[in-house]
Amino acid sequence: MTRIQANLVLLLTAAIWGGGFIAQATAMDEMGPFWFVCVRFLVAAIITLPFALAEARRATRPLTRGDRWSFTGVGLALLGGAGLQQAGLLTTTVTNASFLTGLYVVFVPVISLLVFRRAPHWIVWPGALMALTGIYLLSDGDLAALQIGDLLMIACALFWAMQIILAGNAMQSAGRPLALSVWQFVITAVGAGLFALFTEPFHIDAVKGAALEILYAGLLSSGLAFVLQNIAQRYTTAPQAAIFLSTEALFGALFGAIFLAESLPGGGYVGCALLFAAILVVELVPEWHRKRRENTARAAEIA
């Protein structure tokens, strides 16, 4: 696979994730948000399980109790992120959801500093300011105009950030990505199902009515897209991968306009541009600096 082909695959991955917001939003015409999360991740767990079993047969050691606890933490973070995101879509637009969810990129280094005392790159702070300004403009200069769904999306981004951090720690110790995937999918499906059992009605006809959305979210967004990402990132650079994957927010907004006739107030478009810029600079600038240091060190060794 050439780098151009890999980047096009990453663009397809971002488009699949962007389209996932449409599936998540329209599914709630038929069923409640937590039942949708439950069934979606149950499908994802079922299709991932055979690959996880094959991975287990090749593993050099079994999972330890510590691995299982760390996997459970990742699953709870995924449950929080997926549940809040789905509930938020009841009262916000797909456009707002796609850009506000992307704030996890800014939250990851901040949480790493507060929880794990890992100092972030300096670009995080201007990036955070850009993101806050983008949120202000997304509400057209009136924070009171933010819907409860917008606030849930910001909270959801915090949980996504925690999921990314915890998953990274779990993978360093266990080295079993497919086992982690199934574990977190099951935790999310069970947790969402228990919550939905006491808060939302359930009808099998609702599941049938949202079958296409469930299959899209379970098979494509949770299954195929992650496989495509893992394959393509072997043949391209991290900065280029970050750029192409970040277009998920743009695809979400584009599909929202095409399929749901969504639009933004005038300042909202500037806000989206600032949010997207914040996502890009926080992802790309540290990587560029790291590459520059490596090249400088390599040149010094040669000299």
TrEMBL record:
Sequence ranges assigned to domain EamA in this UniProt record: 7-139, 148-282
Domain of life the protein comes from: Bacteria
Location in or out of the cell: Cell membrane
Keywords for the protein's UniProt record, in alphabetical order: Cell membrane, Membrane, Transmembrane, Transmembrane helix
A Pfam family recorded for this sequence: EamA
Transmembrane segments: 33-54, 66-85, 97-115, 122-139, 145-166, 178-198, 210-229, 241-261, 267-285
Membrane-protein topology: Multi-pass membrane protein
InterPro entries: Diverse_Substrate_Transporter (IPR051258), EamA_dom (IPR000620), EmrE-like (IPR037185)
Cellular component GO terms held in the UniProt record: plasma membrane
Record PANTHER family: EAMA DOMAIN-CONTAINING PROTEIN, OS03G0707200 PROTEIN-RELATED
Protein name: Drug/metabolite transporter (DMT)-like permease
Annotated source species: Allorhizobium borbori
